[in-house]
Batch of 2 targets.
Target 1
Amino acid sequence: METKIIEHSKAAELFIKDEKRTDWHNETLWFVREKRDKAAFQIPDWELLRETASQIKNNVLSNMNQYLIDFEANAKNNGIIVHWAADADEHNKIVHSIMEKHGVSQMVKSKSMLTEECHLNEYLTEKGIDVIDSDLGERIVQLRKEAPSHIVLPAIHLKKADVSETFHKFLGTEKGNNDPKYLTEAARHHLRDTFLTRKIALTGVNFAIAETGEFVVCTNEGNADMGVHLADVHIACMGFEKIIPQRKHLAVFLRLLARSATGQPITTYSSHFKKPGEGKEIHLVIVDNGRSTQLGREDFRSSLKCIRCGACMNTCPVYRRSGGHSYHNAVAGPIGSILAPNLDMSKNADLPFASTLCGSCTNVCPVKIDIHVQLYKWRQKLVKEGYSPKSKTLMMKGMSAVLSNPVFFNLAGKMGRFVLEKMPGLVSNGLNPWYKQREMPAPPEESFREWYQKNSTASKDKNNEQ
Amino acid sequence: MKIGLFVPCYVDQFYPKVAIATYELLQKLGCDVSFPMKQTCCGQPMANSGYEHLSKDCDANFIANFAEFDYVVSPSGSCTLHVKEHLHDEKNEQLATQIRKRVYELTEFITDILKIETIEGNFPHKVGLHYSCHGQRMLHLAQMSELNLPFFSKPEQLLRGIKGLELVSLGKKDECCGFGGTFCVTEEAISAKMGQDRVKDHENQQVEYITGYDMSCLMHLEGTLKRQKSPIKIIHIAQILNGL
């Protein structure tokens, strides 16, 4: 699904053309943000909980190598087969090799943003493997050959009628029946058969515990468990930043995760996997794919604290009005915009600019990543490394020259006000993006400094003396 | 106590009344305030666009203008924040650091430094208070809706003494207006939509005025209101506090 990237601003413009849908999308996500507020504010120590989670993750980032070594040793002791993948390609090859080893060409897969990041589905499909996503939202977008638009709510960009249309086309449901119960039931039947026949199940990982070598997968639908328990082989894929030191730390993260994500006290299923059942196998693929580079970037390393709750997306006024696909990255929204440039600066140079730097993302983040600060810093880095259009650089140089020099500044200000007054057509036209939907300010007769020269206490005193 | 009035460049050129109100208000509150004539821009437009390295001349000019003052006060949260976070001087970093610590947004200067609880006045109108993001979330002029912490609001506290002023409660208490500096042209579609949505929230409460402590956001909302030929007017908080 390697398609041509459309810049965020252009994609957003297209999204917004359907204003009613944009309003619906905005309010739907805002509803989730409000649910999050209600759930979070029921915990008096919410801010302390966030701070605690943040400190635990800081500790993990500073001791990553040791925790990974411990985790691997403990997992191996438990009978888990551990694989290391340097990048997306190696990750995909490892997963495929496990399938080949078992002679299996079908897989059931629960939600894993890492496999989206690695484009595993496309890779396996090319190799002739039939992959079925078992998370309902993931399944819907998979049928439509779309990417998830949100890390927690993959099909949040779709309305009931869109899902009905998709199911009618692919699952043979009644045309025009938008009843959510009916549609969910149809999906259940469709997936039930998948669960019963698949020998290999793949899941993501929410938390990997260094102390015990076990890992935890959180879902609301129970689809990860259903897939894993009915399969002979469980493949779990994780970015290495999923490590937490001890099992007791789960008490912090599980309380934060679902409250931040959907406003639930906890995910319906928080499944612990420690060792394979009789005659079964658990494979764990630990992936780097740019994470060690990000860990080495002092300004951006804390982005690896992310627990993928999606709260920053739900609160982001830009995300709510542009949809997840406008970010052309597996992880969208504010967190995606600080992760994506690490993976590819050239492809993702637009994303840190897709923000007003309002800072709401930073405030909802359960692990206190300073997202808006990193957006600002990515802007500086991208410009310095040459990923900014030449025209913009020229304009900025011009602005800097005028705005830093008192003489130029006064002259430009006078000219600007003169133009607005006498020749408004020069700026109030279609070439000025501001003017497309907004009026220009009315030019005053004089600037403040002109007024001040005549009217300030100091100048009045002077005049009186004369 | 000598106070340097830092007037954002666009306020100087387009909204002189806001700067006049700020100047007069500070004088009424007993401050020795003056406006250094050679000030220009704080450099934020370049910095937020990724060109912080091009704002060095702005920094130097800012320092030259404001070095002599005990406090620097500005009727803008955003510009104040930029100076507080990004003002540097390779030749005299100590001086730059001092100025960074001395710069205050107008309402926080009144409540925190002048220790004035509230200001008496008269403004018999229904008003919506727009919490501009930089002042609120970064300068902490008011509590933020995302945090589970006690309410406070420096601008609201000051407005409480204004007779007849009815402050409405908005649907989204502290949603960004979409201005965002150069964002308003580089992401025109989203920016304009955010402005329209912000205006709608105020309209739903039937306000006569939208006020705030940041003229840039108010300019954005004004541009949107005027395009829609709305009767709602914008007014900077300094103008209300100064009795217009």
Note: Chain A has a mean pLDDT of 94.
Target 2
Amino acid sequence: MLKRLFIVVAIFIALLSIVLLICSDKTLLTHPLGIIARGELKLMTTNILLMLIIVVPTYIFLFFTAWKYRASNPSPRRKPPFPLKEPILWMIPAVIVVVMAVITYKATHALDPYKPLTAEAKPLKIQVVALDWKWLFIYPEQGIATLNFIQFPERTPVHLTLSADGSPMNSFWLPQLSGQIYAMSGMVTPLHIMADGPGIYSGRAAEINGAGFADMTFVAKSTSQEDFEAWVAEVKQAPLQLTDSAYNELVQRSQNNPVTFYSFVEENLFHRIVMKYAQ
Amino acid sequence: MPSNNFFGKLTSDALPHVWYTLGGTAFMVLLGAMVALFLTKTNRWSWLWKEWLTSTDPKKIGTMYMLFAALMFFRGMLDALMLWVQQALAAGGQGYLTADHFQQIFTSHGDIMVFFVTMGFFFGLMNWIVPLQIGARDLAYPFLNSLGLWLTVAGGILINLFFVIGGEFANTGWLAITPLSEREFNPGVGVDYLIWSLQLSGLGSLLAGINFLVTIIKKRAPGMTLMRMPLFTWTSLCAMVLIISAFPVLTATTFLLWLDRFFDMHFFVTGFGGNQMMYFNLIWMWGHPEVYILVIPAFGMFSEIVSTFSQKKVAGYVSLVCAAIAITLLSYMVWLHHFFTMGAGANVNAFFGIVTMVIAIPSGVQVFNWILTMYRGRVIFASPMYWFMGFISTFIVGGMAGILLATPPVDYQVHNSLFLVAHFHTMIIGVALFGIFAGTTYWFPKIFGFTLNERLGKRAFWFWLIGFYVSFVPLYLLGMMGATRRLDHYDAATGWQPLFITSCIGFFFIASGVITQIIQLVVSIKERKKHLDKTGDPWNARGLEWSTSSPPPFYNFALIPTVTSRDAFWQMKQKHSSPKRLYKDIHMPKNTPMGIYIAGAAFVFGFAIVWQILWLSLLAALCVIALIIKLSCNEETEYVLPAAKVAKMEKLRTHADAK
């Protein structure tokens, strides 16, 4: 049995490394491009390494024991039992868990979605509304809005506030910049992201929300400050305006909406969307 | 709103009219007709009714649970196949399923595999073995046991009924998360099917849970103190405590959801003061203990299997008991880790994350003790040990993934991704199912009197192990690549398709494993004469269940054994002690059809309420109440087997064995 198991494991590891080599540039989580996603990856790696301190010896001990004490092996000494005392067995994983707990506590605070990011540049505010089945982004300071697309300057903290309207619970996920957070009607959740440099990132809805779920994706783009300003000026020239009536039409269920730019947003639209559910 | 129609919402439009429901209907009708024909030809209707359906014998009820769970397993496998094929095909296009259909399939896959397959198999094994392990003749409440089985079956039929009657199943994910499951987003009957099949089977599980808890506490053989109980009984006890405290939460929560849907209440809707997040809290307060209900019994089984096949007493019995209890208690305190991403503050998330990590301590201790049981033992690699080795290697991988998911900032990234899907399949397949297969192989000779074919059992193991890793390692990677769960199609540029295809290939390995297991069963039945277990102790094992013959008489033990230590039967074997044959009268429960009747009426109630046929649901509810009253008036539920008859039967049995 053990021999076969080793052969199976060896073949498997070989195949796995080939697969890893082929798709390595597509594993978004291991290619973070923002400060938050990088922190999350670092924490993941740290915890994996900490666990391996126990797990690797355990695997070795497991297969060594199974092999050495197989019934067909006449030689080994079979008495007395293992000298280790029970409390020590509890201590071994406990020590690692304590270390991981401390790291996790600190990291949870450091990477808290509520925590603003500090940087030289002035933070940009974007309001996100999950609709069935598209993402609406409102730039309150610029007075513009976009559908299924956001752009923001690099190395600038972006302060996202998320809610939803006419849609079930949603999750906003932009893997290369940050982990996800839920967007819910009547609720406001925060997320802070910051891109290292210029880039294009794919984002998607991560919580099942009905027929249009798979297509509820969006694109995020980070550019230099100048390019961002030029882009804002361009959007300001867009023919469409997000008036109340245009918004009420947009809330209706629709799938595969193309990227759309709105040169005007009604005052306090986000606030009213949230308060709609507070009555 | 309730409909005024005589048949509620059940109009001709609702009847099946698409290929898969029509196909399902035809298949089920054909299957039913074939079974009926077989029973009529062989003249077995009354045998089936008297010997099986109305039985209160836990061994028979256990077998029925196992058969039912196996049937549901094929249904769940079929769902899995459809999901995998869709995802392998659907790069850049829609594949062959619509989004809605795909979503219904993964919802029913989850519900069926959790409620009817895994729990069904565990209840089957507990019915088989727990009374034998504690030296009892039956359960504390034999009738409740029968009712629990039939309520579970009623729920299982209801969850499949939409194939035949029409309508659809929920498309919300297995937990029917709000507000997606509210009428605003889901006006059809699908979510009602989900709610009421879970209500019925949940009630069945609760009754079974109470029954086993009382049985284990009250019906142990003299001398069997709690700390002398076999570990499978211990972990079953822990799982039962979890069931009793958690399942009422499920019943209440899904009932509130139904009130929302039927009476337009506002518990979990968006707006009107409803709170969608409360549903997440409530359902996971049940849901987290539930996932431990699925794995804790497997821990106990593996403890016994590794001890038996290492020919050595289990290492660290007290530690293993403490670990099971610790996991039980901790499982109540971690529900929030299922929604770190909902926006709770850092302190709340850190608390629940760290408590979840603490579970790694008892889990680690269990792993160490299992290995230490083999250490300096004499390890026989029979097929249950194959499953054990597969389990322990997989469990460690799944545990590591679990710790990552429990770290809130990491969870922000991998939550709702295929990484999560891979993690819980690692636990449910690698721990629960491997445990079920190991336990079934191990205890099968006890119940049926012959061992299963070893060669085919080992072959099935290899198929399962390879298939599992080929299927689910790609899902871990896909999660890292940013693939969310429940996607019916995806962009080809994501580069996910090769991994989805690999994962689908893994399914065919697993399916080969299942087919091998069916062949194993058929071959073993055919050659049963060669593998008869005449000693009652085919593995040279340690627990009381091996002290009686295989299969045991319907009263399990002619003489209730007296227990003086752990591994009671091992001690008896060492001392060569055999009790004096002084038989006493035995009280046994009578068979009763009331379980089937009540569950049948409850099933009609569930069906009527799903389709909002109000008069029928009232009628069925009255039937249930009337049946319970009638049942309560029946005082002759037991009969006495006189000592003389027992002596005669025992003589006959031992004589037959000697032949």
Note: Chain B has a mean pLDDT of 92.
